[in-house]
Amino acid sequence: MRYQITGKQIDVGASLQTHVETELSSMLEKYAGRPTDANVIFSKSGHEHVCEAVVHLSTGLNCTAKGHAPDIYAAFEAAAEKMDKQLRRYKRRLKDHHKERTVPVELMGASSYILAGSRESDEESSEPDSLQPIIVAEMETKIPSLSVGEAVMQMELAGAPVLVFRNEKKDGVNVVYRRDDGNIGWIDP
């Protein structure tokens, strides 16, 4: 398994890297048998340290967790605890998923755009010159080919509010999202 442990404008020492590797490897042996790599990024936000951890599983699923604490080790422990809870919660589903899926998740390329939001000031409440939104950024993204159950699991593991995926059964683009009432919505055009 590959580990990438970095810091954003802070130095990550060898002791912290060793601690992160041993803790992650012991946790992942318990729950997810086939992780491929882990990215752990440490940063500082005010007086707090922030740890963002993403573990990529061999089937294409990702598990994401974020922790905040005044101490850098405590920030990692908070993120590891969240990831441990997620993996424990989905252990049975992950095992079933590994048995059913013999090949990795197929990824399809797509374009992703960031559009400028409308900024209305008190002085200016006039109509815009054009109804076309202003594109701030354009990026490449990957759309996984999953079943609906796998898409819901991936969305929950990543902590995302929405996931766009290609439905394996119907070969069309679908969306799952968390509704305001706490349930999961599924859009199948």
UniProtKB/TrEMBL annotation:
It comes from the Bacteria. Residues 73-100 form a coiled coil. GO terms for molecular function: ribosomal small subunit binding. One of its GO terms (cellular component) is cytosolic small ribosomal subunit. The keyword Chloroplast does not apply. Keywords: Coiled coil, Cytoplasm, Translation regulation. It is found in: Cytoplasm. InterPro entries: HPF/YfiA_ribosome-assoc (IPR050574), HPF_long/plastid (IPR034694), RHF-like (IPR036567), RHF/RaiA (IPR003489), Ribosom_S30AE_C (IPR032528), Ribosom_S30AE_C_sf (IPR038416). GO terms for biological process: negative regulation of translational elongation. The keyword Coiled coil applies. Belongs to the HPF/YfiA ribosome-associated protein family. Long HPF subfamily. Required for dimerization of active 70S ribosomes into 100S ribosomes in stationary phase; 100S ribosomes are translationally inactive and sometimes present during exponential growth. Associates exclusively with 100S ribosomes, which are dimers of 70S ribosomes. This is Ribosome hibernation promoting factor. It comes from Roseivivax jejudonensis.
